[in-house]
Write a structure and sequence with these properties.
The structure is a single chain. By secondary structure, the protein is mainly α. The protein has a domain of about 100 residues: Alpha Horseshoe (Leucine-rich Repeat Variant), CATH 1.25.10. It has 33 helices and no strands. It is elongated. It starts with a helix and ends in an 8-residue tail after the last helix. The relative contact order is 0.03.
């Protein structure tokens, strides 16, 4: 139910003339809180400019409760705000600027531009600061996707504000302030025709200020603009100059993410990049990147048009000092480099703690033709890491068992042994293939297989297959099998040799006897060695 006081305030608000406004303004200082609030609400609801000016004058001193009331009636104050911004009174203008930021009144940016254009206006600098802050707030809304306080479409507002900034840039006479140029660039976006024309024309009066701003601004809108240009098949060459000079993490990190795009347009534009200032060990950017980003930095090198000689130092730095992913990518990239420096770096990287790095380097070593590297590679065949062992086998692929077997009869005895040891370590198919040879229907292949078993010290792995040949139909095969079992230490092989002492062939029986004697000799010798080790120092056996 309405009271007399509320009806009075409604009547005064509806009247809207200057006399009614004076009554309501006077009531704002009433000791009665209900009267103060009623008058305040009435002034906001009225259409009287004087009342709205009074509300603006009092805004800085209002508490949260009163500001919430203003928030509900903010649309009523638009006209008063516009007039206050044009006021020559510093305090009135300051209050209006503060309120414009509070309400995010982007529509007032053209008014601020008008004030800024008059250098004699005492409020010009404050207008510049207010315009800049409003543009940054709008840029944040566009970037974050957050809602405008009054639910307006930020993209529509962006278009409206950009048009105003563009008109300010195109006015003849005195050059626009740098803040206006920067605000325009921040909001324009890559599709803006006016911005594109400037970037394509190095002689344009705004070209250098815009290039300078693009090089140094960390605003999201600027970074998004530069990255979006990579999607443009007609991107101006000036953009590549800017990208080359940016060496701040705020730009480099999203730039690396963008370069992972598989778009043909992006790939073509990356090839137009001839340098990147941050891609040098002298700058701390490489060390500040995390492992995956270091890996992306190495991948970027291959995608750009930067000469390899200019980025070798970066590959070297990451390979020696980078994080795991960076070292891995650098190890792969090193394969594209030749020369003494690259070879030295490859040898150093074989000691990397990461087996993936070692494996990547191993796959490059043979084609580098580094003198004396072969023994080092053979050592790594015994690595505890499967990646390293596999890479070593791939690198030494010519040491295959099939090739070794084909050349076996033509090799000198010492070459048979050394080469056979390599093959046994490198080719994992050595034992399975040798087992197949031992069951061949060809007598010659079976004999050769037994010779290979003895030469490469594979008796332990093929003990059962050699014992089976003690029953071969050919007595020469049986005799050679008995001879080879001299190198075996298994119980089954001893039993086989003892059975072979009853073979119908004299040569088989003789080979079996000699093998058993040899084994007994080794056993007796093994028993004597511990006894010798127990003597006192200086004693005699």
């Amino acid at each position: 139910m309405k009271t007399g006081l509320s009806i009075t305030f409604e009547t005064l608000a509806a009247n809207g003339d200057t006399a009614a406004a004076r009554v309501l303004i006077a009531a704002l200082d009433s000791p009665d809180a209900a009267v103060c609030e009623g008058a305040f609400r009435a002034l906001l609801a009225s259409r009287n400019p004087a009342g709205h000016r009074e509300v603006l004058q009092r805004l800085p001193a209002l508490n949260a409760h009163w500001k919430a009331i203003v928030e509900k009636h903010r649309g009523r104050l638009s006209g008063a705000l516009r007039n206050a911004l044009l006021s020559s009174d510093p305090q009135t203008h300051a209050n209006a600027c503060q309120t414009a930021i509070w309400f995010r009144e982007y529509d007032l940016i053209p008014v601020l531009l008008t004030v800024m254009e008059d250098p004699s206006n005492p409020n010009a600098e404050r207008s510049v600061a207010t315009m800049t802050e409003l543009v940054e707030l709008l840029d944040r809304e566009l970037t974050d996707g957050s809602d405008s306080p009054d639910r307006r479409d930020p993209q529509w507002i962006r278009t409206h504000v950009t048009q105003s900034l563009q008109l300010a840039l195109q006015k003849p006479g005195k050059p626009p302030r740098p803040e206006v140029i920067e605000a325009f660039v921040l909001l324009a976006g890559p599709g803006n025709d006016a911005l594109g024309q400037i970037l394509h024309d190095p002689h344009h009066s705004h070209y250098l200020p815009i290039i300078d701003f693009l090089k140094r601004s960390d605003r999201t809108g600027v970074i998004d603009l530069l990255l979006a240009c990579l999607d443009d098949p007609h991107v101006p060459s000036s953009i590549f100059l800017v990208i080359a000079k940016r060496h701040d993490l705020e730009f480099v990190v999203p730039f690396l993410a963008k370069t992972e795009d598989d778009s043909p347009v992006v790939a073509k534009n990356l090839k137009r990049i001839r340098s990147l200032d941050w891609l040098t060990p002298s700058m701390p950017i490489l060390d500040q990147l995390d492992g995956p980003k270091q890996g992306s930095a190495v991948s970027l090198i291959a995608k750009t048009g930067i000469p390899p000689s200019k980025v070798f130092a970066s590959v070297e730095h990451l390979l020696l000092h980078g994080k795991r992913e960076g070292r891995r990518a650098a190890a792969e990239a090193l394969g594209a480099y030749r020369g003494a420096e690259a070879n030295t770096l490859a040898l150093r990287s074989l000691d990397d703690e990461d087996p993936v790095v070692q494996a990547a380097i191993l796959l490059q070593l043979r084609r580098r033709s580094i003198p004396g590297v072969f023994p080092r590679m053979v050592e790594l065949i015994d690595s505890p890491h499967p990646e390293v062992r596999q890479a070593t086998r791939e690198s030494l692929g010519e040491f295959s068992f099939r090739r070794y077997l084909g050349a076996f009869d033509m090799l000198e005895e010492d070459v048979r042994y050394t080469t056979g040891q390599f093959v046994k370590k490198i080719d994992t198919q050595t034992i399975p293939l040798l087992r197949e040879e031992m069951t061949s229907g060809s007598r010659g292949r079976r004999l050769r297989a037994l010779e290979v078993v003895r030469t490469i010290d594979a008796v332990a792995e093929l003990d059962d297959a050699v014992i089976a040949l003690l029953d071969d139909k050919d007595h020469i095969v049986r005799a050679l099998a008995a001879s080879v079992l001299a190198l075996s230490g298994s119980v089954a092989s001893r039993e086989g040799l003892q059975n072979a002492l009853l073979d119908s062939s004299v040569s088989v029986r003789e080979s079996a006897r000699e093998s058993l004697q040899y084994r007994d000799h080794l056993t007796q010798r093994a028993h004597r060695i511990p006894a010798l080790s127990q003597q006192q120092p200086g004693g005699r056996p």
